[in-house]
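Appendix B. Raw example, untouched.
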Amino acid sequence: MRVQATVSPTSGRRSYTLLDDQHRPIGPVEMFLCHLEALDCSPNTIKAYAHDLRDFFGWLQAGRDWRCLQLIDVGDWVSWLRRPPELRRAGVPVFPTVSTALTERTLERKLATVAAFYTFHARHDPAVILSLTHWVSGRTGHSQHQPFLAHAATGGHRRQIKVRGQLHHRPQVIDRADLRLLLTACQHLRDRFLFTTLFETGMRAGEVLGLRHRDLVIAKNLVRIEPRHNANQARVKGWKARTVPVNPHLFTLYADYMDEEYAAVDSDYVFVNLWGGRSGAAMTYATLRSLVLRLRAATGLAEFTPHQLRHTYATDLIRRGTDWAVVQQLLGHASIQSTLGIYGHLTAEDAREALITSGWFDRSWINLTTADHSTSTVTADPLPTPNQE
């Protein structure tokens, strides 16, 4: 099985499908992916779903019918995914000391994909009865009765299978010295302006690649992030518009870029090809990735990704005391819970700063002990002096 990229003959939009060993689309997967495309999901999202379902239907090839699976079978699939790829079809046990092939986070994503796949098919195919989610109502009590308007009640769907042991890693940020190193390593004003824009606005890579000149409101020091279909497949996540205030110096870089490199190029896009590919065409994800790989080699920052600049922007805002609701709006998160879930983990340094700000370290333990003595008849042994053993 393999994931195949497709292009719509009418809209020209890119999508993906899953082909079997005879190079034919797999019907139930094709229906689900077409449904996602109709909902205007990002091509990258559809691609991720296709790869996850490739793993699922690859496991099903051992004589299983996807319509007849039970919950316990899905657990077996997760166990199969944990095995190294070369041992998945060997039919031999794997010792606990063998490291898992996939991270817990990846396993959670694949489970979410399969859950969405079954939810879609269960709505119009009575033969599909497996569900990886169950309704949890907001009502109290132990009744299992589900009222007629349960879907409108407070509550939600909860997954019945969860991967245990998943660690929530802190978002990776980049310090000022490394940021200066990256910007210095940029050989062109376009690239320096691109990474500075990511750092100053917290934009995602797809959002910055879709920027148009009219999105830069120079008179008011604003950058507008507008959802639209772009020729380079760049997208605004969640199709949610927002406006971000920026420092005026960002537009100084923009003016330099326009004067010295953009020049006579005729394009609506801010970031375009100037030295490779079709001149004036909007930069693509692949072009940005090539640029990142060159910067990694030039600076030695092997783990650098453009998304780290977004994390740095958000972390700086939070450390400076910006209200969480404001951070949510600037980042374009669907809810404040999303912001808290990503950036709510304090480092030891952050915790120390919070304790200093709150005045905790102004309290002296000896003063507390003295205060206790003033209200108690119990006499404590004196603290030893440094020369006492």
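End of appendix B.
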